Automatic annotation (TrEMBL):
Coiled coil: none annotated. Gene3D superfamilies: Aldehyde Dehydrogenase, Chain A, domain 1, Aldehyde Dehydrogenase, Chain A, domain 2. The keyword Oxidoreductase applies. The keyword Oxidoreductase applies. Pfam families: Aldedh. It comes from Vogesella amnigena. Residues 28-490 form the Aldehyde dehydrogenase domain. Keywords: Oxidoreductase. It comes from the Bacteria. The active site is at E265. This is Aldehyde dehydrogenase. InterPro entries: Ald_DH/histidinol_DH, Ald_DH_C, Ald_DH_CS_CYS, Ald_DH_CS_GLU, Ald_DH_N, Aldehyde_DH_dom. Belongs to the aldehyde dehydrogenase family.
């Protein structure tokens, strides 16, 4: 039975929160005693003290990971056995759904209605999907001179570091550790300092599931921990989700150290194009509101640029305003809240400064535009502006908050030109009733995912997720994600 607002509040007052790092099968404080406060953005209350991993913890974790990988206790398990342990891990995530969802909601301000239905079940599904995949894919026997046998196989890469953001803390982490662990690697997870709680809790569940010590470790801390991992000479691969700026630093650090493999899932400024032959304006407007306001707009795929054809602009905006009202923020612990709190003060100030910038550049406010519930926490109204020019600041920079830029266009050519005129290429959408237009436009949009007459569909693990251009390289999800965590090997045997 789903809990009520009052029941979630009661649960939150009694939950025990672990804040220590998890190294070699044990929770530990930082040796130098450093810690930082974990704050609930909806109330300003301190939730826990979190261990801040330093050089000592990074060295310990890498040594433990290296040993656990090299002894073969994980990488050399039969795939079926590794899969069984991972399925147990997935089942434990599901069993602890409410606890993990509550931690995520308290830590990051995300609505409990979402963390219970999307984030936590999504993480369990990801682990289970990769667990089920690994005994079903094999290598190749390559055509070669008959005096030889030629095998092409994939094997685990070794020690993998995963550095993840705060917008979907458990889910983005699972997109890394699901395939990385399934492929047989040892993994060190660095959650964002803004949202470390679920990662820390997961470590104990991983151990309970039977994942050997040193194979799943968690190092909380700030960007300095990520940098140490990126620079480390004994880490074989770093998988990152976060901003394009930090992604570039990680790529440079990897290049300067040991050329560890680098996989980057970065930012976006995704266009959602509504053509005047859109099949259903009301549904398109509701979807457009969800595309920007879901998760407070803290979405890498946020449909943050709405391109609407001139002749339907007024009808579209009227419907959009109605839909936006449904996202008015409220207590994240209330299952009825459309949006929760902005993750922290830094992000909150950043979003408000973009709203000010839009106003000062002359954008026309359609809805929202201010902070709300300022006596309790960090809440911002669902906000949209009509932008007279596609080069206004809020049309170009990733805001990562509930702020939409609406841009009009005359014809399809202009829409495609504006849509692709960005350094990013994570996602895009087009709304049309014409199947030919749908195919032609999707083909020309430079983005890793294109939706037609929908947005944010495809929670299925089968679809690769990632970006063109400066939205990154490589893909999370799907069997292609396994490739990131393996090396290819050719073995030639003379008969
Ligand atoms: P961020 O500031 O780039 O941080 C991401 C992670 O990197 C955090 O764990 C952060 O630690 C760490 N970090 C910071 N500086 C580092 C450094 N110099 N070296 C190594 N690691 C470092 O991004 P964010 O603000 O957390 O997340 C928002 C961004 O993520 C947006 O741009 C969004 O589009 C992107 N995102 C992309 C996807 C995707 O799949 N493409 C999905 C979700 C989010 P601290 O937070 O502790 O400083
Ligand atoms: Mg927090």
């Amino acid at each position: 039975m789903a809990r009520t607002h009052a029941q979630w509040k009661a649960f939150s007052s009694e939950i025990q929160i672990e804040g220590r790092a998890f190294i070699d099968g044990q929770y530990v404080n930082a040796a130098d005693g450093r810690s930082f406060d974990c704050i609930n953005p909806a109330t300003g209350d301190k939730l826990a003290s979190i261990a801040w991993a330093g050089e000592h913890e990074v060295e310990q974790a890498v040594t433990a990971a290296r040993r656990a990988f090299d002894n073969g206790g994980w990488s050399d398990l039969p795939p079926l056995a590794r899969g069984r342990i991972l399925k147990r891990f997935a089942a434990l995530i599901r069993e602890h759904r409410d606890e993990l969802a509550l931690l995520e909601t308290l830590d990051a301000g995300k609505p409990i209605g979402d963390t219970t239905t999307v984030d936590v079940p999504g993480a369990a599904y990801c682990v289970e999907w990769f667990a089920e995949a690994i005994d079903k894919i094999g290598g190749e026997v390559a055509p070669v001179d008959p005096k030889l046998v030629g095998l092409v196989t994939r094997e685990a890469i070794g020690v993998v570091a995963a550095v993840v953001p705060w917008n979907f803390p458990i889910l983005m982490a699972s997109w890394k550790f699901g395939p990385a662990l399934a492929a047989g690697n040892a993994l060190i997870l660095k959650p964002s300092e803004k949202s470390p709680l679920t990662a820390i809790r997961l470590a104990a569940l991983a151990k309970q599931a039977g994942i050997p010590d040193g194979i799943f470790q968690v190092l909380p801390g700030a960007g300095d921990v990520g940098k140490r991992l990126a620079m480390h000479m004994d880490i074989d691969c770093i998988a990152f989700t976060g901003s394009t700026g930090v992604g570039k630093l990680i790529a440079a650090d990897a290049a300067q150290s040991n050329l560890k493999r680098v996989w980057l899932e970065l930012g976006g400024k995704s266009p959602n194009i509504v053509l005047s032959d859109c099949p259903d304006i009301a549904r398109a407007a509701r979807t457009a509101a969800g595309a920007i306001f879901y998760n407070m707009g803290e979405m890498c795929t946020a449909g943050s640029r709405l391109l609407v054809q001139e002749d339907i602009k007024d009808a579209f905006i009227a419907e959009f305003k109605k839909a936006a009202a449904g996202f008015y923020p409220g207590d994240p612990l209330d299952p009825a809240s459309g949006m929760g709190a902005i993750v922290d003060r830094i992000q909150y100030d950043k979003v408000l400064s973009y709203i000010d910038k839009a106003k000062s550049e002359g954008a026309e406010l359609v809805c929202g535009g201010k902070a709300t519930h300022t006596d309790t926490g960090l809440f911002i109204e669902p906000t949209a502006f009509v932008c007279q020019r596609p080069d206004m600041t809020i049309c170009r920079e990733e805001i990562f908050g509930p702020v939409l830029s609406i841009i009009t266009f005359k014809d399809v050519e202009e829409a495609i030109r504006i849509a692709n005129d960005t350094e990013y290429g994570l996602a895009a959408a087009v709304w049309t009733s014409n199947v030919t237009t749908a195919h032609q436009v999707s083909r020309r949009l430079r983005a890793g995912t294109v939706w037609v007459n929908c947005y944010d569909e495809g929670g299925d693990m089968n679809f690769p997720f990632g970006g063109f251009k400066q939205s990154g390289n490589g893909r999370d999800k799907s069997l292609h994600a396994l490739e990131k965590y393996t090396e290819l090997k050719s073995t030639l045997i003379k008969l």
